[in-house]
Amino acid sequence: MGLLGKMLNKALPGVRMKDPVRGAAEVVACSDYHGRGIKQLCTMQLVVHAEGVAPASQEHHLLAHRDKWPAPGMTLPVTVDRADPTKLYVMWDEVQGSRERDVQAAEALAAKMRGERPA
């Protein structure tokens, strides 16, 4: 097991990964944020893929911070277990906050309205 796997297993003892690999999770559907508290349980329908892991649709229930609440169409960076792809960890520190996403979306729309090509 590599360094990443050892670090994850130590940080997340309930989510032991035998063969962790970096991947991505495409958010297809997501529960709503209810405006209470900083973190809430989020139910997501994801398509998870990584090197050595066949893309698969999976439902996940994870704690999410209100500022980084996922939305359909987002791609979340994850670590997934090749031995058991239902085990995954979202790398929340790499997910853009809602304000950053809003600014980026507004700038992209303004550029489109000016007739500029997307970056």
Describe this structure in words.
With 119 residues, the chain is an alpha+beta fold. It has one domain. It is built from two helices and five strands, in the order H-E-E-E-E-E-H. It has a five-stranded antiparallel beta sheet, with no helix packed on it. The longest helix is centred in the C-terminal third of the chain and has 16 residues, at 98-113. It starts with a helix and ends in a 6-residue tail after the last helix.
Summarize the structure.
With 119 residues, the chain is an alpha+beta fold. It has helices at 3-11, 98-113, and strands at residues 20-30, 39-50, 53-65, 75-81, 84-90.
Measured as a percent range, the helix fraction is 10-25%
Task: Compute the separation of the termini in Å.
Answer: 39 Å
Q: How many structural domains?
A: 1
Helical element count? 2
The computed structural class is: alpha+beta
Order of helices and strands: HEEEEEH
Identify the overall geometry.
globular
Widest sheet, order of strands: 3-2-1-4-5
Question: What's the pLDDT, averaged over the residues?
Answer: 86
